[in-house]
């Protein structure tokens, strides 16, 4: 009897090793070029997750296969995703910093039987393009609408909006305008700039001339946002009495050293601050700083990636490592957990993340460096942009 149990266990052990697989996750992001810090943050979040949770789910080894997409380039994004699926045999696609790159991949998912976990791209509509998309970042509707409420509460009456002319910029403008107008405020003008704009002086002049008492702005985080905030400062807008309002993309932590005193006091609304005060965030920041190498480079895409890995590990667990994209996605609908950013859940209907949005002010730390200090919380925000699409 005893020997037969031992024999059975030996067979089990053998078969579980025999069935152990390597599950590949294909991650597309900007790992070189002007947005390389943003891609580095994807990798830091993924590395932090794997350092804290292991590189295995059950018996299966998890391997991340990275592909570099330096700028928004939908055709190249689609080609990279196809190559990852066909040649590398990835079971999951993840990452995607820019909206057009995520959009370009959604038509491939069902045929490839692969879920897409969006770790950054923030246009509301992305999740509606395929039932196999789950998003762990944010939408610009989600992060911009609360700023309209803050503006109204603080007595701002007239606002000019300035956004990059593509998905998340248009969503951000609509979110701010709809909410601010509903609160009784007035949007006096709305400027949409090409994504490639890097001389912001003429725009700052239009902002001054508009007679608005605040400018609300969205640009994708990177050299663009750094240039825009510098131009706001160098063109004397604060002195001219034009307040600065934006989602947190414009004061990402990795830009603060370069902005210096120019950033002091800027108000933004966002889902994540590196300074967020919780045990989960302390653990995360420690691991992510180690992973990124230069702690000053840590920024929000790292948390989208870290939580994206949380979701992917749950999907792998729920499917026992087998390739079943619909079952994997179904398994995370309604999933709730404590993220480094605060409590979050995956909305079962939209597959987008529900989360707190925080009002933050750029403040000076004791060591003289600047950080985003959370000063108020809008709890459990869904994505109002998805409702607006219906
Ligand atoms: C986007 O393209 O969806 C995007 C990129 C960077 C951001 C926000 C949104 O900071």
Automatic annotation (TrEMBL):
Query: Which SUPFAM superfamilies does this entry report, sorted A to Z?
Result: Periplasmic binding protein-like I
- Gene3D superfamilies for the chain: 3.40.50.2300
Instruction: List residues of the Leucine-binding protein domain.
Output: 22-364
Record's keyword terms, sorted:
Amino-acid transport, Signal, Transport
Superkingdom assignment: Bacteria
Q: Where is the signal peptide?
A: 1-20
A Pfam family that the UniProt record links to this protein: Peripla_BP_6
Instruction: Identify the PANTHER family for this entry.
Output: LEUCINE-SPECIFIC-BINDING PROTEIN (PTHR30483), PERIPLASMIC BINDING PROTEIN OF ABC TRANSPORTER FOR NATURAL AMINO ACIDS (PTHR30483:SF6)
Annotated family: Belongs to the leucine-binding protein family.
Q: What is this protein called?
A: ABC transporter substrate-binding protein
């Amino acid at each position: 009897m005893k020997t037969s149990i031992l024999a059975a266990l030996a067979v089990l052990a053998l078969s579980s090793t025999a069935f152990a697989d390597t599950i590949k996750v294909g991650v597309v992001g900007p790992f070189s070029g002007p947005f390389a810090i943003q891609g580095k943050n994807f990798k830091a979040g993924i590395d932090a997750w794997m350092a804290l949770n292991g590189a295995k789910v059950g018996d299966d080894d998890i391997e991340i296969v990275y592909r570099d997409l330096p700028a928004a380039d939908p055709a190249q994004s689609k080609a990279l995703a196809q190559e990852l699926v066909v040649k590398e045999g990835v079971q999951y696609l993840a990452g995607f910093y820019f909206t057009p790159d995520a959009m370009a991949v959604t038509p491939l998912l069902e045929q490839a039987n692969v879920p897409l976990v969006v770790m950054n791209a923030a246009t509301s509509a992305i999740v509606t393009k395929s039932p196999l998309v789950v998003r762990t970042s944010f939408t610009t509707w989600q992060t911009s609408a609360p700023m309209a409420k803050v503006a109204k509460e603080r007595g701002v009456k007239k606002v000019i909006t300035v956004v990059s002319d593509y998905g998340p910029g248009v969503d951000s403008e609509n979110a701010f305008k709809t909410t601010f107008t509903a609160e009784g405020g007035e949007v006096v003008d709305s400027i949409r700039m090409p994504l490639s704009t890097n001389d912001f002086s003429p725009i700052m002049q239009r902002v001054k001339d508009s007679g608005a008492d605040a400018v609300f702005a969205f640009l994708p985080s990177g050299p663009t946002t750094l240039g825009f905030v510098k131009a706001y400062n160098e063109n004397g807008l604060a002195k001219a009495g034009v307040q600065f309002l934006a989602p947190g993309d414009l004061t990402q932590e990795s830009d603060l050293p370069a902005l210096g005193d120019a950033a002091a006091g800027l108000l933004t609304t966002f889902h994540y601050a590196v300074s967020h005060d919780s045990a989960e965030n302390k653990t995360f920041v420690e691991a992510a700083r180690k992973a990124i190498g230069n702690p000053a480079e840590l920024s929000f895409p790292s948390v989208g990636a870290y939580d994206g890995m949380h979701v992917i590990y749950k999907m792998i667990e729920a499917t026992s490592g087998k390739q079943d994209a619909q079952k994997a996605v179904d398994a995370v609908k309604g999933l709730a957990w404590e993220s480094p950013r605060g409590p979050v859940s995956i909305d079962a209907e939209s597959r987008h993340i529900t989360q707190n949005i925080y009002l933050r002010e750029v403040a000076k730390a004791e060591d003289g460096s600047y950080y985003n200090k959370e000063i108020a919380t809008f709890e459990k925000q869904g994505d109002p942009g998805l409702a607006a699409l219906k």
